[in-house]
Specification:
The protein folds into two domains: 1-14 and 68-171; 203-375, no CATH class. The chain is 48% helix and 21% strand. It has five helices and eleven strands. The chain has helices at residues 2-14, 25-45, 65-199, 301-308, 327-330; strands at 202-206, 233-241, 246-258, 269-270, 277-278, 287-293, 313-324, 334-345, 351-355, 358-366, 374-375. The strands form two sheets. Strands 3, 4, 5, 7, 8, 9, 10 and 11 form an eight-stranded antiparallel β-sheet that branches. A three-stranded antiparallel β-sheet has the order 1-2-6, with no helix packed on it. It is rod-shaped and about 195 Å long. The chain starts with a helix and ends with a strand.
Length: 376
């Protein structure tokens, strides 16, 4: 291909005609001189003209013979030089012609090669055009297929939207059903709890209405008498009610005198004589009297005076753990816990109590965290 391009550039330059070399001055003069002598020789060879009157024709001078011979020699030499120059020129012209012919032949072959290349390019372009046509047909088919798929996707999208709407409606219905079921479950649970609350065994503790120390086993009184020489305890009542039986698993009570109003950390002691099985049909178990012995106790009149004046405090606490007849089903343990502190007040609505310092008013107040005062 590169050689064809080079030939295409060189051929127009080679096709320009070569100029014939110009003759020098001497040969031109020789040719002129030769021609002149030739003409003279010709004139000399012409027949003599007819005699005319002297008055009509001017006299023409005649050249000498010597001049004629010399002129012929010069003319022959000039003719030889002229023929050599012509041969050289003709040879140059022939070479130029041959070169032009060769260049023309090469240009012809170059043109033939270009024609072949153009034909091949035309075939390739035709093949490419066919391929592009097939690609266009294929792309058109793909476009139609994609349009069909798009239509199917739109149809599927609409169907999906309908399914989503239907699923949303079903979800709403399921939520409503779940809410209704939850409400039914809550209602059923409440109904069961109502039945259990009505039927199960319960234990309630009632604190005393006043201070009961010293306490004597043959004397049950709520009137406090301050005597440091007798046992000191806090009396209370436990009420058992309900329609079914109960089993006591733990019963603890305790009482003490403390310098702080905060609940003490004394653990207490088991309740003695308390029935471990509550039978509701037994009238003697409808209520039960308990007594929590105080320890530490009031040791002197100074301790009694400190309680009356609010410098010391009497604490009373306890708890009972038990099971009702529904434990086997719900596995729920029951507890009744209590914690109180005694305070002397000036409120006439409280319990009146006679003391060595005169009459006073007082009451039991709940204290401690909520779990220490609960009934489940």
């Amino acid at each position: 291909m590169r050689w064809l391009c080079i030939l295409a550039i060189v051929l127009p330059l080679a096709q320009q005609p070569a100029e014939a070399p110009k003759d020098k001055g001497a040969p031109e003069a020789n040719r002129t001189h030769g021609a002149t002598h030739t003409e003279s020789a010709t004139d000399n060879q012409q027949p003599p003209a007819k005699s005319t009157p002297s008055t009509a024709q001017p006299s023409i001078p005649m050249k000498s013979k010597t001049d004629t011979v010399g002129g012929d020699w010069h003319a022959g030499a000039n003719n030889e030089k002229t023929s050599d120059e012509d041969l050289r020129i003709q040879r140059k012209l022939a070479l130029s012609t041959v070169a032009l012919v060769v260049v023309g032949i090469l240009q012809f072959f170059a043109l033939v090669g270009q024609v072949i290349i153009y034909c091949r390019q035309a075939k390739i372009m035709a093949h490419q055009a066919g391929e592009m046509t097939r690609q266009r047909v294929t792309m058109r088919g793909q476009l139609e297929a994609m349009q069909g798929q798009l239509g199917q996707m739109e149809s599927a999208g609409k169907q999906t939207d309908r399914l989503i709407t239907h699923a949303s409606n079903q979800t709403i219905a399921l939520k409503n059903a779940a809410n209704a079921a939850s409400l039914n479950a809550v209602s059923a649970k409440q109904a069961v709890e109502i039945v259990i609350s009505k039927e199960r065994c319960r234990i309630r503790m009632e604190p005393p209405q006043g201070l009961n120390f010293p306490y004597q086993s043959d004397q049950v009184t709520h009137e406090p008498t301050f005597d440091a020489n007798h046992p000191q305890a806090v009396n209370y009542y436990l009420y058992c009610y309900g329609l079914t039986e109960g089993d006591i698993t733990e019963a603890i009570d305790g009482a003490c005198v403390s310098d702080s109003e905060e609940p003490p950390t004394i653990p207490g002691s088991p309740i003695s004589g308390f029935p471990w099985r509550i039978i509701q049909t037994d009238p003697e178990q409808a209520w039960w009297f308990g007594s929590a012995r105080m320890f530490p106790r009031l040791e002197s009149m100074d301790d009694i005076t400190a309680v009356i004046e609010g410098r010391k405090f009497i604490h009373f606490w306890g708890h009972l753990r038990y099971r009702d007849v529904f434990f086997d089903v719900f596995r729920q343990k029951r507890i009744t816990a209590f914690r109180y502190v005694w305070k002397f007040t000036g409120n006439p609505t409280d319990v009146p109590v006679g003391t060595p310092l005169g009459g006073r008013f007082g009451a039991w107040r709940k204290c401690g965290p909520p779990e220490d005062n609960r009934q489940t």
